[in-house]
Amino acid sequence: MTTAKDIMHPGAQWIPAHETLDRAAQLMREQDVGALPIADAKERLTGILTDRDIVVGCVAMGHDPAQTTAGEMAHGTPRWIDANADVDQVLYEMQSHQIRRLPVIENKRLVGMISEADLAQHLTDGQLASWMEQVYAHG
């Protein structure tokens, strides 16, 4: 059985909710990623910050990324998957919530992230096509 841990990109890093968006952008550049999980002081997942969130939700709105925190950008209920979940559970979680990135948690610790690129490397063409249809569907 292929698990979330098998297909994830390891080494994902939290960004503290109190950290500013300019620092988040620097971390994204350093790690060559487009999203960072946001954590509270107890390292609980409070959201996901994307590069698009920074541009559209902060800069384009006329806000200063040096004064806006990651926590201010966290909206909704954060989604995650257990490291031992099988691929079908990963796909279900991402499809049912129409999300493109999914933090992987093991023993209450962030161990990685699953992105579209990770899925593309581990799914059949049919599975990938079905996933894309569901995630990108507008309803």
Automatic annotation (TrEMBL):
<feature type="domain" description="CBS">
    <location>
        <begin position="73"/>
        <end position="130"/>
    </location>
</feature>
<dbReference type="Pfam" id="PF00571">
    <property type="entry name" value="CBS"/>
</dbReference>
<dbReference type="InterPro" id="IPR051257">
    <property type="entry name" value="Diverse_CBS-Domain"/>
</dbReference>
<dbReference type="InterPro" id="IPR000644">
    <property type="entry name" value="CBS_dom"/>
</dbReference>
<feature type="domain" description="CBS">
    <location>
        <begin position="8"/>
        <end position="65"/>
    </location>
</feature>
<keyword id="KW-0129">CBS domain</keyword>
<dbReference type="InterPro" id="IPR046342">
    <property type="entry name" value="CBS_dom_sf"/>
</dbReference>
<protein>
    <recommendedName>
        <fullName>CBS domain-containing protein</fullName>
    </recommendedName>
</protein>
